[in-house]
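Reopening this one. Same input as before:
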Amino acid sequence: MEDSKLPMSLRSNLLDLFGQIEREFENLYIENIELRREIDSLNERLTGDGQTIEGGDPTKGALKTKASHSTSQLSQKLKTTYKASTSKIVSSFKATTGSRALCQLLKEYVGHRDGIWDLSVTRTQPVVLGTASADHSALLWSIETGKCLLRYAGHAGSVNSIKFHPTEQMALTASGDQTAHIWRYMVQLPAPQPPPDVSAPCDDDQDSSDREEGEVDGEGPCEVPTVRVPTATLKSHQGVVIAADWLVGGRQVVTASWDRAANLYELETSELVHALTGHDQELTHCCTHPTQRLVVTSSRDTTFRLWDFRDPSIHSVNVFQGHTDTVTSAVFTVGDNVVSGSDDRTVKVWDLKNMRSPIATIRTDSAVNRISVSANQRIIALPHDNRQVRLFDMSGVRLARLPRSNRMGHRRMVCCTAWNEENQSCNLFTCGFDRQAIGWNINIPALLQEK
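Same output, byte for byte:
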């Protein structure tokens, strides 16, 4: 290592990543040992009852470790993730008869040619799903049919986030090309199709056997209308723009960048109003309050910051150090809460009126990516590096896990979740490195009753 030509910062990042890989395999090794012990115990119990387990020796082929190697982060950086997961065959011994279908697969949205970083649902009619991908494009989808309706191809780098204007048919996208774009869209929804009859219990003990790794089926969407020129380009950043959002009212925009700053722009003039500086490392996300002029930014420096623009003459900022690793996202709820997620495998719920300490802490077994909170029921959806999506309430009580089996679920890291509660039903959308987005119908009354 003494003769290494790599810059010190890159060497440090690589050592940190290798340390994470070692910890992942250590956890999996311990998990495998525990699973083997439990299987041996079950075998002894079944043998004592004169039964045998179909499949013979459980140690031969029963426990399988799979690794998926994902490379291809944004333009100026290389982020390598090497994740492994173990099939929990013990769950097959547990009866699931009588459990209600809490989560139903709504639709799969397949067409991107690289991983999907972010997704969002329009806040105006017609209601469509938007996805942002490392393939340099953003796509708009019919939620009911899964048909691609429009492509935005104006960026020269990975599209890292997408958000829709609160009242107009405009989208805001952030990119690795160091810009954020505002662009208009017009779409016409196709005739709806009958939903597929695919349902599964939303249970933390459901079988999660792995599908074989491979590319998502399909060669991308058919020829669709393409928008190539934005109505406005926001270009004051000196690094990757990782996220962007609309302030309440839709007249201003905030962007977050790897240049360690967040910028506030006027929509009408595209002019920079404020540069929000103070984070020590790259920003990972930004979010705006649904009803107040508040912004929260998260960073690799293990903090998130709350920026207050309610008083035009004072722009205050508060720093919160509740995590021990990268804060991957921090989001507002409709009430007076902030929910933060981190690579330290925790999610914390904070009260805006008293941010000294979290009111709830959720501990998980995998790094947490971009979280979302349902507006009506205030349910937190956690996307994980280990391909799981888990649901919690605001007090930190675990409600469910989305199904992941041979037939459904993501095959690689889940990057983001987004809720849609406009209709009577409650839909949750997820996206990941497997190039697809998935829509789920969540039976909220049954879910809360199960709790």
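So the earlier flakiness isn't reproducible anymore. For the record, Residues 414 and 432 are 4 Å apart (CA to CA).
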